[in-house]
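User: Okay, second chain of the day. Same drill as before: sequence in, structure tokens out.
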Amino acid sequence: MKVLDASFLVKLVLEEERSEEAERLIKEWILEGEEVATLDLAFPESFNALCKRAVKGELSQEECREAAEDLYKILSRIRVYQSREFILKAVDISLEHGITVYDSLYLSLAADRGGDLATFDEELGRVAAKLGVTTRP
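Assistant: Same drill. Structure tokens below.
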């Protein structure tokens, strides 16, 4: 299983550094028959990241809407787990490692299901390594 966090999902719909790498990896995983999943949390978190960039002037409103539509299509094609299933473990991870509960939820899902965490968040990657969770890329 590959668990996609918001940082990975946003790279799939925006042209930015390492976006091509994210696109290549997700195609590879799908072709290999890997389960590709995320949390319900990814919806507000990743859509918020898109809107935030539009508000800052990094994207036009039209570009933001197009990216949001593309992201919605991606999210409708992958498995989405409910955060509530992993919240208590996420609280423990957050308290122990000083990261947000949001990030801890992705780690909790990956750890619980024996999956890899697909993230471009370096801090999250460091905590994942401490927990024995493999990160990609």
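The two ends are 14 Å apart (CA to CA).

User: Thanks, on to the next one.
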